[in-house]
Amino acid sequence: MKSRDHIFGLRAIIEAIQAKKHVDKVYLQKGLSGELFKELEFILRKNKIATSYVPIEKLNKLTQNNHQGAVALISPVDFQDFESLVEEILERDSVPLFLLLDQVTDVRNFGAIIRTAECTGVDAIIVPKTGSAPITSDTIKTSAGAVFNIPIAKVDHLKDAIYYLQASNIAIVAATEKGDDTIFQTNLKSGCAIIMGAEDKGISDSILKLVDHKAKLPIAGKIGSLNVSVACGAILYEVFRQRLG
Fold first, then answer.
1. How far is CA 51 from CA 25, 46, 47, 61, 169, in A?
2. For 66-119, where are the alpha helices, taking DSSP H only?
3. How far apart are CA 206 and CA 197, in angstroms?
4. How far is CA 101 from CA 20, 106, 129, 187, in A?
């Protein structure tokens, strides 16, 4: 991990959060205590920042400096305010395209998805604050720098983002093998938001209950599913194809 990707030390992390730095995740040493440590825990919970309790050996691998039992991953990009971003997009684009990622945790998959999204005209990517891949140097490399060209918003709960988009007349389309129609049979010419699910579990059932359409990619081979970044690319290019027509 490069030094520009992280900060270390209890007080430094507290000050970074209070200064509104975009902290993706914090690693805390198991069994640590003390007033400053408890203060950091409280701030992390309050700001809903992803936290993992790990052995000291893990922290020592992340940095050789005096980490005091705490290392934070810092995002190299600024995340957008969700509601302001949506309103800005709706004002300029009558047929917007949003991409929602439900618990996609692999940084390279995330980077590949961002790259394809930028190439296919996605207006914005929305991810939940917890349970999503951070933006690291690997993400940036895999995205070929596209991460700096497409706005990304973090939300407390993906459900709230879905409700907000639906209230703005944006159709929510879930990419899932549980759909009756294929993505090629689904009308994607109007404003819509595509939801892609986790690499292993797909889209969560609670999210699937809220969507307007469920669409699947047909599979001809014996393998029952595609890598999430590959599947996302196929779906986004189908949106692109329909809108070109």
1. 6, 12, 11, 17, 35
2. 82-92, 107-119
3. 12
4. 23, 12, 11, 20
Q: How far apart are CA 146 and CA 118, in angstroms?
A: 6
What's the rounded mean pLDDT across residues 102-115?
Answer: 95
Cα gap 145→10, rounded to integer Å: 31
Grade residue 226 by pLDDT with cuts at 50, 70 and 90: confident
Find the helix packing angle between 228-244 and 107-119, rounded to 10°: 10
Separation of alpha carbons 87 and 89, rounded Å: 5
136-186 pLDDT tens trace: 888 989 999 999 999 999 999 999 999 999 999 999 999 999 888 999 999
Residue among 6, 24, 4, 51 nearest 152 (CA): 24
CA atoms within 13 A of residue 173's CA, in its CB half-sphere: 29
Distance CA 97, CA 93 (A): 9
Question: Any idea what DSSP says for residue 4?
Answer: G
Which residue bears the tokens 């609670």?
A: 206
Contact 107, 75 (CB under 8 A): no
CB distance 238 to 188 below 8 Å:
yes
Distance (Å, whole) CA 65 – CA 234:
44
Complete DSSP assignment for 171-188? EEEEE-TT-SEEGGGS--
Range 44-66 burial, b when 16+ CB lie within 10 A, else e:
beeeebbbeebeeeebeebbeee
How does residue 21 score in pLDDT terms, banded at 50, 70 and 90? confident
User: For residue 211, with 0-12 CB atoms within 10 Å meaning exposed, 13-18 middle and 19 or more buried, which class applies?
Assistant: buried
